[in-house]
Write a structure and sequence with these properties.
The structure holds 2 protein chains of 2 kinds.
Chain A lengths: L6 E3 L2 H9 L8 H8 L4 E3 L2 H8 L6 H10 L6 E2 L3 H7 L1
Parallel strand pairs in A: 1-2, 2-3
Helix pairs in contact in A: 1-3
Chain B lengths: L4 E8 L7 H18 L7 E6 L3 E6 L8 H15 L10 H12 L14 E6 L2 E8 L2 H9 L4 E16 L5 E5 L5 E6 L4 H6 L4 E11 L4 E11 L23 H9 L3
Parallel strand pairs in B: 8-10
Antiparallel strand pairs in B: 1-3, 1-4, 2-3, 4-5, 6-7, 6-9, 7-8, 9-10
Helix pairs in contact in B: 1-3, 3-4
Classes of the chains: A mainly alpha, B alpha+beta.
Chain lengths: 88, 261
């Protein structure tokens, strides 16, 4: 039996597609549900968060979700070279 | 032989009148090394002190005896290096640097003819263990070779503020979500904010130091901000803003921000 998934990497385009509600990213709902339940740790580099938030600093309605979640200490792991090697 | 460690002795200029400068300097360096290897600040105690040759017995406070593990870690790690081995992951680049400084400052000075190497001696509950480590020039050289790579850059770190000590420099400990400890230094004006944030989840901003694997092990903090628990869930983000990229496609949006998608 394969090892259970404990962490997941999401790139900026997938995260933006999910925020925009694009149909092809609806499948990520189950993943994010697991993240909310703390069953899976979402691994994001701060660079991706900056890309996603970069031009929306003054738009509270647009980024409130990502901005609030990005301060959740449980939700995001810092991306180290060890994690990057595993992901590769 | 395994012993239950409860103290570590530092002996300087054994067998002769001690050099006061060397003794106090090495004492300070030893405390700095213990600080680098402790998860949270420990109020180390002088359990005994005697003169002629100068010796100090350092022990954890009575209400925190488990921190004697740090004394054993120092002794066993330096012994391993003495024998040509390497250091464990518990040793940050800062810890290696402080250990190197500690050993180096105990070395023979110009014109000193009767120098003997300073020593560390493990002390168990029933007395001396018989284990002695000489702080030799070879050990200093070995530690110099083991100094790991590090980089400094502006950044932020999130975690739980689990320790704060202002009596021996301004130091704090931040526990990351993965349970690792980041050691934190700060200027006095930040004391009150950190005191108010103790045992809370916070974001610290300032100058971070990363090791060769990208792990942050130290931060010089300039700002502290308590984190608020979000009332929105990740799953709620689906379709939260259909116009997130305005007139641009996602691809064009990312190209505009980083040059590719």
């Amino acid at each position: 039996m394969p090892d259970p998934v404990r962490s997941a990497l999401i790139d900026a385009s997938a995260l933006i597609g999910y925020i925009k509600g694009e149909a092809e990213f609806a499948c990520l709902r189950s993943l994010f549900t697991a993240v909310d339940r703390a069953e899976i740790t979402l691994v994001e580099s701060t660079a991706i968060l900056i890309e996603v938030l970069s031009i929306h600093d003054d738009d509270l309605t647009a980024v409130s979700g990502v901005a609030l979640l990005s301060v959740d200490p449980r939700g995001i792991e810092p991306l180290t070279s060890a994690i990057a090697k595993v992901a590769a | 032989m395994m012993i239950i460690v409860n103290a570590l002795e530092l002996l300087v200029d054994e067998g002769r009148q001690a050099n006061a400068g060397r003794f106090f300097q090495l004492g300070q360096d030893l405390l700095a090394l213990l600080d680098e290897l402790s998860d949270v600040p420990v109020a180390w105690q002088i359990a005994d002190l005697w003169m002629g040759s100068a010796a100090a017995r350092v022990a954890p406070p009575e209400d925190n005896p488990e921190e004697a593990r740090v004394l054993e870690l120092v002794y066993s790690s330096l012994s391993t290096v003495q024998k040509g081995g390497s250091l464990s992951d518990d040793w940050s680049p800062d810890a290696v640097r402080v250990a190197h400084r500690f050993v180096e400052r105990g070395q023979q000075m110009d014109g000193e003819t009767d120098w003997v190497p300073p020593r560390l001696r493990l002390v168990g509950k029933t007395g001396h263990s018989g284990q002695v480590l000489d702080l030799t020039p070879e050990l200093s050289e070995q530690l110099g070779h083991l100094q790991p790579f590090e980089r400094k850059m502006p950044g932020s770190v999130r975690g739980e503020l689990v320790g704060l000590n202002v009596s021996r420099g301004n130091r704090a400990s931040l526990r990351l979500p993965n349970k690792r400890i980041v050691r934190v230094g700060f200027e006095t004006p930040l004391r009150a904010d950190l005191k108010n944030a103790l045992y809370q989840h916070v974001e610290l901003r300032g100058l971070v130091k990363q090791d060769g694997d990208g792990r942050i092990f130290h931060m010089r903090a300039d700002e502290v901000e308590p984190l608020v628990k979000p009332d929105v869930r990740w799953v709620d983000l689906f379709g939260i803003d259909p116009d997130f990229t305005g007139d641009l496609t996602t691809e064009r949006y990312l190209e505009a921000n980083r040059g590719d998608a």
